[in-house]
Structures are given as C-alpha cells and as structure tokens.
Amino acid sequence: MSELRFVRLGFGEQAVEYTEAWQKQREVHADRFEDRVPDTCLLLEHPPVYTAGRRTADNERPLDGTPVIDVDRGGKITWHGPGQLVGYPIQKLPRPVDVVAHVRRLEDALIRTAADFGVETSRVEGRSGVWVLGDPVEQRQALGGLSLDFDPRLQDEEFDPRLNGPEYAPSNAGQRREDRKLAAIGIRVAKGVTMHGFALNVNPDNTWFDRIVPCGIRDAGVTSLSNELGREITIEEVLPVVEKHLRDILENADLAPREIERPQASAPAAPAAPAVPAVPA
C-alpha cells in the first residue's frame, strides 16, 4: 500500500492558470522521483483553455484561431475550464510502466464517482476516458429534418461537426442520444513517474467543446454530471467523492511492471538431407 496525498490548488475565483499548474506538476514530479514526497494528486479548476496533446491534427483545432497550448501528454485536443474538476495524479510506478493499467485505474475511480451521483458510465473500446453510452445508431432520432440515412457522419471520415450547424455540435450529443464523454484522460510518464491525468465534467459550459473536435473524436460528443442528471452539481460536492475513490483504488492497487513479450527462440533447423544425384532420363 502506497500513501496518496491530495493537494487542492484552487477552484472558482482561485482557479489555476494552466501553465502555472503545469510548472507545479514538474516540481512535484521531480520531488516524487527523488522520493522527497509521496504519490500526490493535484486537484483544481482551470480558467478556460484549450490544450493539445502530441497527436492533435491541425483540422481538430479551433477554426477561429483561438489560442491553444501544446503540451507533452498523450491524446489530442481538449478544453479545460470552470465547472470541470481536473486531477493530476503524480505517482511512481514500477518500470517498465504499464500505462494502460494506470489509465484503467483512473477510469475506475471516475466510473465509481459517477455511479455515486446516479450516472451510469462505461468504457468504450479503443477510447480512453469515461463515457455515457448512447442509443444504437438505428434507434436515434434524426434532428433538424435530417434522416440518418443521409447522416454524413456515417460515411465521411473527414466530416467536421463544427461546420454543420448546432445539431451536430459535440455539446448536443445527449440530445442526439450519441455516446458522450464525461471524463477525459491524458497522461505522460517520465522516469517511471506519471504526470497529467483526468478532467471530469461536473457543470461546465460544454459549448466550449464545439470549437474543436474533442479528443479527435468526430462521431461522439461530451456531457457532464449536471447535464445527465438534469440538476446542478457542484465541484464542492464532487471533490470528496473523487478523492475517496482515487485513494481507494490508487493506494490499494497491486502495482506491477508491464509485461514484455519476448520473442520465442526459433527451433534449431533440421539438418539438410543429402543431395540426391540426378538420374539421367
């Protein structure tokens, strides 16, 4: 069992600028690597900001030239801002680090948090984060007089919801009964210590996501605890619940290094058969 401490950096009017929090992460990361501090989770809100992971494509960024901070985490572009609880677990893990296992632990904590508020969430195969699952495509109602038979999202991989009216905006995914992301996860591991982490949508203005292709995903959208429940949920309500589940999962995890499959040694070649002299016809 490893101790996990929480540091609440700032919320509301004390929300922490992204670059300031990023520098704080670096400092705690260095201290954790040197074992000067225990595993630490920074919790905070940011003022509105777009951040882009290493795999962000140009056509996923804001079309209006809104500034974006490029960061060293995995994943693609996302938004942070008021009403979103951001957590940066800085944890030392055995090397080689099993990154997928770390992401799954964060997902588990957030799935449990959502369940405590009465929101059923899940994972989506091939996509990180925590999701509210939508209806199957054939059961969704067309919006704005459009028929799903002609829905460009089903045929065109380059379809951009930002160019096609509000009915396709990521913030309206619930209205369309599509899959919608409640919490995003993007991490980096350096020297066996994690950085970055998760962003849980509690009660943000989700229309901020409509300027981008959130996480590079064009066929789904975003949601929040407040949207799903139809009532206001606050960061203050969610903070102790998130801490409880993160502590339970991260402190009690059976940490193990990533298993690396070694190529099997090939069997020795059979001795060549003696040459058979050609027989004249």
TrEMBL record:
Keywords: Acyltransferase, Cytoplasm, Transferase. GO terms for cellular component: cytoplasm. It is found in: Cytoplasm. PROSITE patterns: BPL_LPL_CATALYTIC, LIPB. The keyword Aminoacyl-tRNA synthetase does not apply. Substrate binds at R73, G74, G75, K76, I77, T78, W79, H80, A184, I185, G186, G197, F198, A199. InterPro entries: aa-tRNA-synth_II/BPL/LPL, BPL_LPL_catalytic, Octanoyltransferase, Octanoyltransferase_CS. The keyword Translocase does not apply. GO terms for biological process: protein lipoylation. Residues 35-254 form the BPL/LPL catalytic domain. The record marks K181 as: Lowers pKa of active site Cys. CDD domains: LipB. Its EC number is 2.3.1.181. Residues 267-281 have a biased composition (Low complexity). It catalyses: octanoyl-[ACP] + L-lysyl-[protein] = N(6)-octanoyl-L-lysyl-[protein] + holo-[ACP] + H(+). Pathway: Protein modification; protein lipoylation via endogenous pathway; protein N(6)-(lipoyl)lysine from octanoyl-[acyl-carrier-protein]: step 1/2. The active site is at C215. Pfam families: LplA-B_cat (PF21948). Transmembrane segments: none annotated. Catalyzes the transfer of endogenously produced octanoic acid from octanoyl-acyl-carrier-protein onto the lipoyl domains of lipoate-dependent enzymes. Lipoyl-ACP can also act as a substrate although octanoyl-ACP is likely to be the physiological substrate. In the reaction, the free carboxyl group of octanoic acid is attached via an amide linkage to the epsilon-amino group of a specific lysine residue of lipoyl domains of lipoate-dependent enzymes. Belongs to the LipB family. This is Octanoyltransferase. It comes from Streptomyces filamentosus NRRL 15998. The gene is lipB.
